[in-house]
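**Protein record**
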Amino acid sequence: MKCEHCTRKECSKKTKTDDQENASVDVPSPAQENGEKGEFHKLADAKIFLSDCLACDSCVSAEEGIQVSQQNAKDFFQVLNLNKKCDTSEHKVLAVSLCPQSLPYFAAKFSLSVTDASRRLCGFLKSLGVHYVFDTTIAADFSILESQKEFVRRFRQHNEEEPALPMLTSACPGWVRYAERVLGHPVTPHLCTAKSPQQIMGSLVKDYFARRQNLSPDKIFHVIVAPCYDKKLEALQEDVLTASRGSRGTDCVLTSGEIAQMMEQSDVSVREAALDTLFGDVKEEELRRHDGAGSDGYLAHIFRHAAKELFNEDVGEVTYRALRNKDFQEVTLEKSGEVLLRFAAAYGFRNIQNVVLKLKKGCLNGRGQAQTADGRTDKALLQKMKGIYADIPVQLPEASTHVQELYQEWLDGTDSPRVQEALHTAYQGPGQPADSRDIKW
């Protein structure tokens, strides 16, 4: 069976209904191999289906299949079980980071306010044995701010001989891999180098937070809760500040749906708890989001910043104009009949193929949540989630005092070499061989 948008001549991508056994990644975890089940094994039975992400199963190597299989609840529960044993040398600090796009799912699913949903989710995780539960919004702040600065820099450096524009921005691992492995040159030089919020959160937890707690990065087991299965693949990339010290920034990614399944199957007593902060603050901070419906709103943030920085124009509401369809929209800044800036937002693979552009920075409709039992989108739940997400207070990344403090305390300033190391990445250039994690999208 060939998937709808496959670029390969042969493809064996399967759906759950085609062949559930072959489509799933079911490699035994270390806990299984050692015969170790512990008290959490009943909550760790879910399989990962490659049809839930953008990868074709024929394109995943044996090595990568093992690595993807480790992005599941079994290894998470193995750490919980080891922490309950007397051998403290095996203990790890468990930290979970929640993507803001996941919280409306829990709120809608359990009919709670988004604040109550975060407190119940935090309480559940801590009842299992998790030590810290963080919000990844601060990591998205860094990603947005660095994307803004990079666009302005590219705009000023752009010329016909060495074009620096357009800048293509996306934190979707599927799009990034497609651009690297399929489109290649001349697209990759135009990819924004700012790391995704997930990658930055890995650096924050395994570097900044680890140093504050006087811990070695390998003594922290860091879990990301995200809406999308593609984030499991992103976690395999050793492209974080701490990788050189033998510790991946994200050890495990669990989808919102996987966590919800654990909550439904668990009979542990849960006491609601407030989210933690990287700074050890006792006071509970108000949940917030970035401008944009269902995403972190990178286009709006970069557009407003560029308008002010380059043309001294203050943009209030960003007006989108539909082009070919509602998922392909344009935003322009015009003055005296001249177009000064032209941005486009494209969602969906068809629009990517048409314009080689995708500005999708996180979504409420990731396939790791809001799915019915037969794998279809739960439209009623998704609509409820959109309303909940829209009600979360909006705050500009520039307004975060914590971010400004981190630039100085953690990164030695906004323009230091450590900023490039911690917050930016490099993409595979033309002619470079793909590594063992190569996937065709």
In short: The first helix runs from residue 20 to 23. The chain has a mean pLDDT of 75. The chain has 16 helices and nine strands.
